[in-house]
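Input record (Table S2, row 211):
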Amino acid sequence: MEKYVELQESIISGKKDKVGELTQRFLDDGRPAKEILDEGLIPGMAVVGRKFQEGEYFIPEMLLSARALNVGLDLLKPLLEASDVKPVAKVLVGTVKGDIHDIGKNLVSIMLRGGGFEVIDAGVDVSPDTFVQMAKESSVDIVGLSALLTTTMPSMQETVEAFKSDGSRDKIKIMIGGAPVTTEYAEKIGADGYAQNASLAIEMARNLAGV
Ligand code: B12
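Output record (cobalamin complex):
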């Protein structure tokens, strides 16, 4: 939408103060947090990804944009998370081993909390054994795995296998996501589901939790 162009451009150029200022202004104007996210912040970051792919942007530019995106997300977080319903189920969310991308994972956590789930964040670069151990300790119903690199997607399979070897696979649902991940991949590695974005992740989690 036209009115979010400046916000998108501020993400693209990594201007975190401007992102904070504009996000706050939209909130003050009464724009819904979800709209600011979907029409301002996320499309801006999508352009950053394209620029990196085309060799126009390098890591420093990506980091600046990621930092700017986080400033906006922090402002939206309390609104996206606001939910007074009793937790529908417990979800453990983390980025798989070898991968440090956490923006998508954080967004999924925020949205799941907003959808009434209790979320435990395992962080980034999480080994299969740590996922299994944390899932047990907190008796979670669902585990959400995030991967942004084609090279770390195999860690998802290793994590599914680790739950099998541990004997806890049957008690836990596993959903996966991240830019290179697909429904076919989820089927191939024996995960229970895939969701393309944070909103669909809520739907998927509801289905898996049977609510
Ligand atoms: C920001 C960024 C970085 C930042 C990360 C900062 C951070 N704190 O996360 C930095 C600069 C550190 C970085 C580093 C690298 N990056 Co990088 N990065 C990106 C970039 C531009 C954006 C990712 C992002 O945050 N998107 C915004 C969020 C909101 O989207 P998302 O992550 O996809 O998440 C959504 C969905 O996928 C889904 N989802 C995500 N997780 C989950 C989990 C579940 C359970 C579910 C259901 C859904 C779900 O819901 C989310 C919300 O809607 C992407 C480009 C892109 N278009 O993806 C490249 C990209 C992922 N990076 C890439 C690369 C190559 C790297 C490096 C290897 C570069 C290098 N040579 O060092 C390193 C790897 C470091 C490592 N070991 O992890 C490539 C990957 C290529 C590939 N196919 O493997 C990409 C695609 C860029 C490109 N076009 O080439 N990167």
